[in-house]
Specification:
The chain contains nine helices and twelve strands. By secondary structure, it is an alpha/beta fold. The protein has a six-stranded parallel β-sheet with strand order 2-1-3-4-5-10, sandwiched between helices. It binds NADP nicotinamide-adenine-dinucleotide phosphate (NAP).
Length: about 290
């Protein structure tokens, strides 16, 4: 079936909002954006009714339980949203024979690697959020092998809650900040991820098969400390930044030390030219400055 009407969950999240911006200038598809009130993933049994009321020809699930630390104690809810609901959407898409795109995370991996994670690296999450996302991937693929799962990492946007906006706020409020310097990863601009997601729909409409697991992140690797340094420089802020180790910044959920995703598969299959994270960050900070 040709994709023309696209149902998007999680409309007010970083990625959902960036898809809304992209939709304003994309005339290839009709988008239906549903926020948590319009489509609540904590009630998987209600999802079929909502999907049928819109009769979409593709589903993009950007909604997720993303509170990594809170997931350690709110386990049942996190699992329902990130695993059971994802499996239900995958099943609905299979039965309707429509494409289903959903998103996962670098946190499905252990963080012990020394080279970038390829898509078939063994899953070994070290926190409960990572486990819910890993379960969601596996349950979605078991229910519907045509599911398209995009793992991403360190997502930021001019909209919503993220490291970039938090750093800018804190650097304005304080003279000095300690930032974790021993975790390495690839930041991802939700705007670029939104445009890659639309590229998947275009590719499907060209009759090209896209299915299974992909990795998407902006190019270039960094640490949270170096990311913060760049934010400070691009935003023109004055604050003393000091690198610290993860064990000096205790949090309820453990974070992987090495989180670098290998994105070659999506680059090749979709013929994508992924921007460097510094280019993306500059765009984001310019948007924030003019907001
Ligand atoms: N953020 C990251 O750094 C990161 C890293 C790796 C992977 N990812 C994955 O990338 C995808 C997009 O993430 P994001 O950064 O756009 O997340 P986000 O900004 O936290 O947005 C998540 C959205 O999901 C919605 N949501 C939460 N519970 C819901 C429920 N029960 N029913 C319906 N909607 C619900 C939230 O609604 P409210 O607005 O009402 O709260 C929010 O709009 C997710 O799959 C996430 O796991 C994110």
């Amino acid at each position: 079936m040709r994709v023309n009407k696209v149902l998007v969950t999680g409309a007010n999240g970083q990625l959902g909002w960036e898809l809304q911006q992209a939709a304003k200038v994309n005339s290839n598809f009709e988008f239906i954006f549903l926020d948590r009130n319009a489509m609540d993933l904590s009630n998987p049994n209600d999802l079929l009714k909502t999907v049928e009321s819109y009769a979409p020809s593709a589903i993009i699930n950007t909604a997720a339980y993303t509170a990594v630390d809170k997931a350690e104690t709110e386990k049942a809810l996190a699992h329902t949203i990130n695993a059971e609901a994802v499996a239900e959407l995958a099943t609905i898409a299979k039965n309707k024979q429509i494409p289903f795109i959903t998103f996962s995370t670098d946190y499905v991996f252990s963080g012990n690697a020394a080279i970038p994670y390829v898509t078939d690296t063994q899953l070994a999450p070290i926190n409960y959020y990572g486990k819910t996302k890993a379960d969601g991937e596996q349950m979605a693929l078991a229910a519907n092998p045509d599911s398209i799962i995009i793992r991403t990492s360190w997502v930021f946007s001019s909209h919503g809650n993220n490291f970039v906006k938090t750093m800018i706020r804190l650097m304005k409020e304080r003279d000095s900040l300690n930032i974790v310097g021993d975790q390495q990863g690839r930041p991802t601009y939700a705007k670029d991820l939104a445009s890659a997601s639309i590229q998947i729909l275009n590719t499907l409409n060209q009759g090209v098969s896209v299915k299974g697991i992909y990795h998407y992140a902006n190019t270039g690797e960094t640490t949270w400390f170096d990311f913060a340094q760049k934010i400070k420089e691009l935003a023109g802020l004055d604050c003393n930044l000091t690198p610290i180790n993860s064990d000096q910044f205790p949090a309820p959920a453990k974070r992987p030390n090495y989180s670098v995703l290998d994105t070659q598969k999506i680059e090749k299959e979709l013929n994508l030219n992924i921007p460097h994270w510094e280019t993306a960050l500059k765009d984001c900070i310019e948007k924030l400055a003019t907001a």
